[in-house]
Amino acid sequence: MKITPGKQKGLQAVSDRRGVIAAAAMDQRGSLKSAIAKEKGIDKKAVTPEMMAEFKEAVVRILTPHASAVLLDPEYGLSAAPQRAKNAGLLLAYEKSGYDNTRPGRLPDLLDHYSVRRLVAAGADCIKILLYYTPFDPAGVNEAKHAWVERIGDECAANDVPFFLEFVGYEEGIDEKGIDFARKKPECVIKSMAEFSKPQYGVDVMKVEVPVTMAYVQGARACKGESVYTREQAKEHFRKAAAVARKPFIYLSAGVSNETFGETLELAAESGVNFSGVLCGRATWKDAIPVYAKRGIKALEDWLADQGVKNIKNVNGRLSAAQPWFSFYGVASVGALS
Q1: H-helix or E-strand spanning residue 89
Q2: Can you say how many angstroms the Cα of residue 144 is from the centroid of all Cα atoms in its chain?
Q3: Residues 77 and 53: beta-carbon distance below 8 Å
Q4: Measured on CA atoms in the order 185, 242, 12, 280, is the torsion positive or negative?
Q5: Closest to 338 (Cα-Cα) out of 7, 4, 42
Q6: What is the tens place of the pLDDT at every residue in 89-135?
Q7: Euclidean distance between CA atoms 29 and 181, whole angstroms
Q8: Domains of the chain from N-terminus onward
Q9: Which SS3 state, helix, strand or coil, does residue 331 take?
Q10: What is the per-residue pLDDT across 31-55, written as a single tens digit (0 to 9) for each?
């Protein structure tokens, strides 16, 4: 297996010394605006770009000494990028926040004033895209998404920069956190990982959901009532998803609590799957939003320095089972890929 020099350099920049990706995510835009507005009791439009940047800068400055990389958006996050720790690489998001809700299929779009070339010029070591995806959508919807991903993969290849694809499952009319989707989630995740492992997409790392909903894993601390899977069934879903992957993959936290994400990583470790790390956002810092909204920047910084650091260390402490991204290609060092 050979990886081009630019892609190799980019992947090394966002990995720790072991080759594991222990990245923090701070590219939230619409959801962060809404959350700040709700806690402040103001209209979403009253949340200024300066407030967004201030929040992101604090998160980056205080948490990146404990991360191998940070994911930011170029709309509000570029002022935070230079404030990251020297050990932390930079991923930049290329998609617009949200999706097209005027048509079925949650179709995505790219930022109007950016290209992969421009994101690299802004300092990106890697490019990240978020795609809402389900293998159960009509063929026409998914063909449009497949072509869209192929174009981005080609653009990343032309600029010799790694392409991280994040896909999040859904089904229209069903609560993605509810029990009905929990029953469908394993198949959704497994088929999505198989699809985007295909070479035509040019994906270098898949950022994926775990294939179960922890709130419905029997015996899990997150399970407060009815369950969908036993612990052994859940571990088998992890293994089946990992078995179809033909690219390195990392787990996203999907907005769950820090405790639940920690338990999720414990289950992944028990399953013995070859995941290569995490790209974790809200599970680390979302409880700081009301602190910032009600008490300001100094209170946010104090919270991050205490609980935020504890949260990210809690996640990092569960990455001992993670494998270096390059081991996915059957080599023991990055140099063997050249």
Answers
A1: strand 89-93
A2: 22
A3: yes
A4: positive
A5: 4
A6: 999 999 999 998 888 899 999 999 999 999 999 999 999 999 999 99
A7: 25
A8: 5-337 (3.20.20.70)
A9: coil
A10: 999 999 999 999 999 999 999 999 9
Amino acid identity, position 117: R
Angle formed by the axes of helices 258-271 and 309-316, nearest 10° = 10
Here the tokens at position 212 are: 């179960």
Determine how β-strand 205-208 pairs with β-strand 126-132. Answer: unpaired
Interatomic CA distance for residues 66 and 90, integer angstroms = 14
Residue that is written with structure tokens 């497949």 in the block: 146
Tell me how far apart the terminal alpha carbons of the chain are, to the nearest angstrom: 8
CA atoms of 20 and 138, how far apart (whole Å): 36
CB 243 within 8 A of CB 193: no
The mean pLDDT of the chain is: 96
Distance CA 64, CA 69 (A): 7
| CA 162 from centroid of its chain's CA atoms | 15
Judge contact between 105 and 138, C-beta under 8 A.
yes
Name 107's bridge partners.
100
Residues 6+ apart with CB under 8 A from 110: 94, 95, 96, 152
- pLDDT band at 336; cut points 50, 70, 90: confident
Euclidean distance between CA atoms 335 and 328, whole angstroms: 14
This prediction has a pTM of 0.97
* ∠ CA 177-182-186, rounded to 5°: 130
pLDDT of residue 331: 85
Q: What angle do CA 201, 174, 168 make, to 5 degrees?
A: 25
**Containing H/E element for 148?**
helix 139-158
Residue 2 CB neighbours (<10 A): 9
